[in-house]
């Protein structure tokens, strides 16, 4: 249980771990070198004592069922779980279920997806099925989260998080928190880190790395909480009637919702007009003899449109509850997504 639920190992890896693969750090943490891979797993604190006891045993024996001599044996796990049946109506022990619990715990703690995927030995896309089981990222709105300074020592400011997102878009073409955090943690110069108010971390210290990732995600979560009129888990497909109730927050007359919508509108307007104003102020449009106009175009989303379940016929909403069909003039079928407003500069020859 310590290897599967505390370290997230698969059944084959649990069977292969020997005492030489366990290392106790000075701080008391237990690090497991996964056999046959280059992964190093820091055991969860609740299971450290069990693995520390196993690491102190003499000889190079297997950690799970140490009296065996063969790495693989018939009914290695089934015979053990048959003799250790949980009470109180709990399900039977399973390495796969214990490993899944470990992954969900890490996701619920808001640890960076890239870190979890690397520790689990899988891709970040494979974590999607576990994200459904983790609780939604909800937190009470805080009016001060948009302030320039951090919420408490150690947390980056919202300005620093958004700046790293822009750097991620420019250098990698991805607007993901994973890439933004990697840039913030490992790619900036000392002068840039000081200017953004980012604390220094030791890349060799896994605890500092995980803490940095969690703080980065937490700041962005607080920022979106303030700006989102209908806070909910956007990773799950809701029944259509629930999604419709949440979507009304973008159109109703509630003062709190209206304030957030107005704030979002100000941000969008600034994003559209500021580059044009800067370009004009710096003289880039001095010799331009054309016109600057505003146009709207379709922005497709990767989310699937609403559809009915085959088994029950229940209508399931899209994860993008406010998306719709965009009809472009002279185009064929409509695009499912949003309508983006662009600044267009044009002139005739």
Topology:
Layout: H1 2-5, H2 11-16, E1 22-24, E2 30-33, E3 40-42, H3 48-55, H4 78-83, H5 95-108, H6 113-120, H7 128-131, H8 158-172, H9 177-187, H10 190-196, H11 206-227, H12 240-247, H13 255-281, E4 291-300, E5 307-308, E6 315-316, E7 324-326, E8 335-346
Antiparallel strand pairs: 1-2, 2-3, 4-8, 5-6, 7-8
Please name the defining characteristics of this protein:
349 residues; alpha+beta; 3-stranded antiparallel beta sheet; 13 helices; 11% strand
Structure description:
The chain is an alpha+beta fold and 349 residues long. It folds into three domains: 2-84 and 93-108 and 120-130, no CATH class; 143-227, no CATH class; 240-346, no CATH class. Helix content is 40%, strand content 11%. It is built from 13 helices and eight strands. It has helices at 2-5, 11-16, 48-55, 78-83, 95-108, 113-120, 128-131, 158-172, 177-187, 190-196, 206-227, 240-247, 255-281, and strands at 22-24, 30-33, 40-42, 291-300, 307-308, 315-316, 324-326, 335-346. The protein starts with a helix and ends with a strand.
Summarize the structure.
The chain is an alpha+beta fold and 349 residues long. Helix content is 40%, strand content 11%.
């Amino acid at each position: 249980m310590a290897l599967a639920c505390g370290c997230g190992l698969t059944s084959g890896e649990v069977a292969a771990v020997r005492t030489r693969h366990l290392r106790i750090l000075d701080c008391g943490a237990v690090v497991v070198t996964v056999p046959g891979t280059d992964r190093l797993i820091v055991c969860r604190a609740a299971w450290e004592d069990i693995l520390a006891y196993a690491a102190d045993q003499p000889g190079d024996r297997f950690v799970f069922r140490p009296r065996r001599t063969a790495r693989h044996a018939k009914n290695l796990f089934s015979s053990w779980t048959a003799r250790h049946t949980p009470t109180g109506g709990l399900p039977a022990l399973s390495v796969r279920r214990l490993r899944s619990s470990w992954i969900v715990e890490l996701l619920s703690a808001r640890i960076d997806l890239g870190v979890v995927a690397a520790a689990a030995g899988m891709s970040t896309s494979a974590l999607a099925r576990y994200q459904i089981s983790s609780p939604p990222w909800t937190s009470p709105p805080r009016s001060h989260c948009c302030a320039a300074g951090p919420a408490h020592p150690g947390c980056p400011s919202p300005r620093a998080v958004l700046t790293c997102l822009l750097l991620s878009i420019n250098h990698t073409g991805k607007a993901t928190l994973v890439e933004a955090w990697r840039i913030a943690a490992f790619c900036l110069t000392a002068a840039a880190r000081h200017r953004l108010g980012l604390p220094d971390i030791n890349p060799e210290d896994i605890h500092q790395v995980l803490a940095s990732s969690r703080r980065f995600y937490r700041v962005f979560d607080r920022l979106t909480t303030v700006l989102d009129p209908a806070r909910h888990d956007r990773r799950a497909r809701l029944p259509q009637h629930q999604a419709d109730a949440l979507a009304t927050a973008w159109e109703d007359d509630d003062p709190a919702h209206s304030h957030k919508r107005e704030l979002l509108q100000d941000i969008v307007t600034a994003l559209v007009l500021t580059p044009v104003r800067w370009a004009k102020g710096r003289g880039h449009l001095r010799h331009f003899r054309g016109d600057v106009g505003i146009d709207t175009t379709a922005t497709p989303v990767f989310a699937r449109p609403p559809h009915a379940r085959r088994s029950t016929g229940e209508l399931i909403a899209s994860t993008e509850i406010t998306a719709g069909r965009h009809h472009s003039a002279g185009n064929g079928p409509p695009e499912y997504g949003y309508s983006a407003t662009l600044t267009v500069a044009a002139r005739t020859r």
